[in-house]
Amino acid sequence: MTEKKVTISIPIFKCEDFIIKTLESVISQTYPNVEVLLINDCTPDNSAILVNDFIKENALAGWKLIDLEENSGLSVVRNKGIDEASGQYIFFLDSDDTLEATAIADLVEKAEATNAEMVMGEVRVIKLPENTEVDIFNLKEKEDALVGNKIILKSLVDGGFLVSSWNKLIRLDFLKDHQLYFTKGLYAQDALHTFEMALKLQHVAFLRKKTYNYFLHSNSVIHNRKKVHFDNWITIANKINSYYLKEKDKERKEQILKYLLNFKTMTLLMNWKAQKNEELWKRSYSAYSKLKGLGIGDYFSSTFSKKEKKESLLMSLPTNLGYKIFRKRFGS
Questions:
Q1: Is residue 258 part of a domain?
Q2: What is the pLDDT along the chain (332 residues), one digit of tens a residue?
Q3: Total number of domains in the chain
Q4: Beta strand extents in the chain (DSSP E only)
Q5: Quick one: how many helices (H) and strands (E) in the chain?
Q6: Coil, strand or helix at 81
Q7: Residue-range definition of the domain harbouring residue 204
Q8: How many other CB atoms sit within 10 Å of the CB of residue 66?
Q9: Of residues 37, 50, 23, 26, the one with CA closest to residue 77
Q10: Which of these, 175, 203, 186, lies nearest to 88 by C-alpha position?
Q11: Which positions ≥6 away from 92 have C-beta within 8 Å?
Q12: Which residue, 122, 40, 51, is CA-closest to 84?
């Protein structure tokens, strides 16, 4: 039986220090039917040159370097990968990370055995320059497969699986049939795109095996969040809020509200840790407080936890008071 083709989509932008290691991990894959799309987002460094030389030196017929006409951001890069892909599955790999040798083979085997629209493996996080493993990005979902949209949505909302777009093998027809493209102009939108997928997914599977190596270094986004990221988070929160307002099903509506509440709480904390800027924090808080929070009836419902009720209440205060209480809770 012919193996299903997998498209690996890799963004190319300011990654000259890491990209060769990434490409070597792809060329080492044991799975034979792979095409590789390398999307050059007008990188100003030597990344694209290194990629082009790597393709030529290794005579890689199934690899393609695609140059965008202007710098457009990761959303456009990933959308280009979706549009150009010819595989039955697509896998997003960041240009400073690597794959385990059997990653694609193992993920495809799981997908084919379970008929899942999306399969996730486990992540190994390596902190540089110490080269030590860090215990984050863990897969918390206990079941090996989830069937049914409400079950999948609840797992995401409860933190059962990661919101990252990388390390997910996704059926291409699922993305295209539901028009699940990334929102143009957003830099940090994995939480939005995965949420939008979770609104449509019917079957998800998990591989209890390390497939992806995430390198945590000084240039990682997690260490370099700025005002543009905070503005993106406000936009994402508004989009999640709009899904809540349009939703008719009570159970799904409650899950969307939980996701929105958790997103606001998490990003406010990340906002402060990144910049410790009172003005920027208050700007985000003010924007978030205008969005949907728990209603009076929700505070008497067992659907929402004590923590969620508390966070919703703290999100509904006047901005100056909200800031004072936040600083008291989390300090400097």
A1: yes
A2: 478 999 999 999 999 999 999 999 999 999 999 999 999 999 999 999 999 999 999 999 999 999 999 999 999 999 999 999 999 999 999 999 999 999 999 999 999 999 999 999 999 999 988 889 998 889 999 999 999 999 999 999 999 999 999 999 999 999 999 999 999 988 778 999 999 999 999 999 999 999 999 998 766 555 456 788 899 999 999 999 999 999 999 999 999 999 999 999 999 999 998 889 999 999 999 999 999 999 999 999 999 999 999 999 999 999 999 999 999 998 76
A3: 2
A4: 6-12, 34-40, 63-67, 89-92, 98-99, 118-127, 132-134, 145-147, 168-171, 203-216
A5: 12, 10
A6: helix
A7: 6-222
A8: 15
A9: 37
A10: 175
A11: 9, 78, 81, 165, 166, 168
A12: 40
Given 222, 239, 266, the domain boundary residue is 222
Residue 275 vs residues 17, 156, 228, 284, 328: alpha-carbon distances, Å: 26, 28, 12, 13, 17
* Cα 175 to Cα 104: distance, rounded to the nearest angstrom: 19
Residue with the two structure tokens 């508004």: 238
Task: Judge if 180 and 232 occupy the same domain.
Answer: no
